[in-house]
Amino acid sequence: MAVSKAKKESKPGWRHYNFTTAGPVDDYLYSMLPKREEVLAEMEEYAAERNIPIVGPAVARVLQQLALMINAQTVFELGSAIGYSTIWWAQAVGEKGQVVYTDGDSKNAERARSYFDRVGVTNRITLHTGDALEVLSEQKQQYDIIFNDVDKEDYPRVLRLVSPRLRKGGLFITDNVLWSGRVAEKNPKDATTKAILEFNRLLYSSADFYTTILPLRDGLAVALKK
Fold first, then answer.
1. pLDDT tens profile 61-88
2. CA distances (Å), origin 181, targets 22, 108, 186, 193, 196
3. Alpha-carbon dihedral of residues 30, 197, 64, 117, nearest 10 degrees?
4. Percent of the chain residues past pLDDT 70, beyond the cut
5. Per-residue pLDDT tens for 138-163?
6. Each residue of 90-116: pLDDT tens digit?
7. Looking at the DSSP assignment, which residues form a beta bridge with residue 225?
8. CA 71 – CA 169 distance, rounded (Å)
9. Number of CB atoms found within 10 A of residue 86's CB
10. Which of 70, 112, 116, 169 has minimal Cβ neighbours within 10 Å of its Cβ?
């Protein structure tokens, strides 16, 4: 008996095709977040006014939760800007932990340091100003977490550097992997979208990682080192 065309084209309900976190649902998610401490709220406002990219509080809580779940003591952050996510990492690793901040802009680093001082986590953070990938390539130790938020066209290159510098059971976490939905375009023309698509494909197919993309904000890839 032939299967009807309608049945062939039906989509499984568990995929929730009509569900999205945009609009009111997104507003609800952010309304549920506990109030941030004064410095973090100030950083959110500063970033919004000047269009400085930060992960925001919803993603930051996920980052901090993941660090706490694996008892992370060392975090290497590729691309730190004004240090918003750096603070969340530093609070997660505790007084004996260490977070590596990297950014190419010395003014960003200077502002970040002032925030770190105010929060009281400066002694947990090592600041590097310059090319984040070069700094990572020089590292001899293995980290518990490597967080990737550099220029998107560098994403495929980041993947090649990460595995030897991440411990077994560690996490490789990458922001912006859905790229405002542009990853769903049929034939994207811009180099940035192409780089993210290549990165996502390589990450999911890598024998070194077990990967899931969380569709929160702009997409967060969480990859467990096997």
1. 999 999 999 999 999 999 999 999 999 9
2. 11, 28, 11, 10, 11
3. -90
4. 96
5. 999 999 999 999 999 999 999 999 99
6. 999 999 999 999 999 999 999 999 999
7. 209
8. 11
9. 27
10. 169
Backbone angles phi, psi at 18, to 5 degrees: -90, 5
0.85 cut: is pTM over it? Answer: yes
Q: Quick one: pLDDT at residue 1?
A: 46
- CB distance 59 to 175 below 8 Å: yes
- Angstrom CA distances, 62 to 15, 44, 65, 91, 216, stand at 23, 17, 5, 13, 10
* Burial category of 123 from C-beta neighbours within 10 Å (exposed 0-12, middle 13-18, buried 19 and up): exposed
Whole-number Å distance between alpha carbons of 144 and 178: 24
Report residue 120 as tokens: 């009281």
pLDDT for residue 2 is more than 60? no
| C-alpha–C-alpha distance, residues 121 and 88, integer Å | 10
Residues in CB range of 5: below 8 A, 6 or more apart: none
Tokens read off for 115: 């925030």
Q: Where are the alpha helices (DSSP H) in the chain?
A: 5-9, 24-31, 38-50, 56-69, 84-93, 106-119, 132-137, 155-162, 191-205
- What's the CA gap between 60 and 62, in Å, rounded? 5
CA atoms within a 13 Å half-sphere pointing along the CA-CB vector of 152: 20
